[in-house]
Write the structure tokens for this entry.
Amino acid sequence: MDLLPARLATVAGQFGDRVALQMSGGETMTYAEWDGRASAVARGLVAHGVARGDRVALLVGNEEAPIYQVAYFAVLRAGAVVVPVNPRLSRREVGHLVADSGARAVVAGAGQLERAREIAEGARTLVVAPGAAGAGEADWGDLVGGDRSPFQVEVGPGDLADILYTSGTTGLPKGVAATHRSAMVAHPLTPIERGGKLLHSVPLATLIGTHGTQTLCLRLALTNLFLPAFDPRRFADLVASERPAWTVMVPAHALLLLESGALDAVDTSSMKMVIYGSAPMPHHAVEGLAAAFPRATLMNGYGLTEGGTSVVAMPPGEALRRPGSVGRPMDPAGIRVVDEAGADVDPGTVGEVAIRVPAGERFYYNDPEASAATWRGDWVHSGDLGYLDDAGYLYLVDRKKDLIVRGGYNISSIEVEGALHEHPDVVEAAVLGVPHPVLGQDVAAVVRLRPGAALDLDGTGEFLVDRLADYKRPRQLTVVTEPLPRNAMGKLDKKALRDLLAPPVAP
């Protein structure tokens, strides 16, 4: 089987001079450069003690995408396992991911070097970053400037390729481990001879950022045109000047783009494919995208980290005709909607969405109990509730798991509740997702305090700075004096909690 590192070499051999990555500021990297740099850095990692099967954390921000893209493939060529870490996470969250994965090395961008150094020395033995020169460190420039001839530590299809962390119902992030075979099966695509550009602004250290854009571009031999931070005006300028044929966006990006009016005077005729996903897209936004990109096919992709890729897609022309649907399964035998006993339900009946994933190809790293509950034979149980209509189109109606999807980021309400409970004045805390006109959902908290205590939204944010990433912190806070409502099993009654929520504060 042709694994991802070999695929990079193959594409570089065919399209070596084609630009693989183009930053919105103008910096570029060709496929040949990407291939050579990945081998050079892989050699350097091995020379500094990284061995086959070692986990290597990538702590690289979007603004340093060339480092992320090279480092991801360098780790695979060193025979090691990639652990992407979102730089927006707090210090404690980063420490948890590194410790849970057992990462012994960290590759960091220049902007993240000090944060990498903050990770307990007992939890890592090597830090690689631009300008790193201390004990147990290696300078990125030295590694990337090394021998660029082909290099690969032998790995097999069943060896682990990466561990991508996603929030789970336990409140702590879970690492979804994927084999090399799984990473390749997720992208059964071949290069487009004429090339083209894919414009996006997706966070790198996510499934959609790593595989939905970076690997997708590799498999199709496209230019990854990357805007590190989404800005509607800059996005529109790039559509006008670079003439991309593809784009990938989360609903928050689409809503901001449409609301801004930035595309009103822009020729968008170059755009042939608009892919969106990660959260439900409001129907009015689908209509707006269709009007903004009249020559493009709109494709709504549904999937999850545990499944590895989008498994449902909207055929051309169907997005407007089927409001609320996320599309039709690309493999009709690869999607089921089941009841609590795991039996298929009839069309139109709500149940849990289950996705076919070959047994052993994906699992929760270091959590066999959670793996057994989620992966049952060749089926991963998504935790999403939905139904299939008579034509086979999937509709999602709710989330079985307590996840909040804010601007494309999954947030565990239980994780946020745990952080709030650490406040000395908080007796009880509940966190819910509430509608947001742009981000899809926002984070709201209901807390009961100790008698005589006071807490406001600003104070809550200050307390959570070192505990939670900024996007996970509540944007609405309701303080109550009575015990929080619970059901007969002692669990929080979140339906009743919604009646207690204070009205949102205008931005």
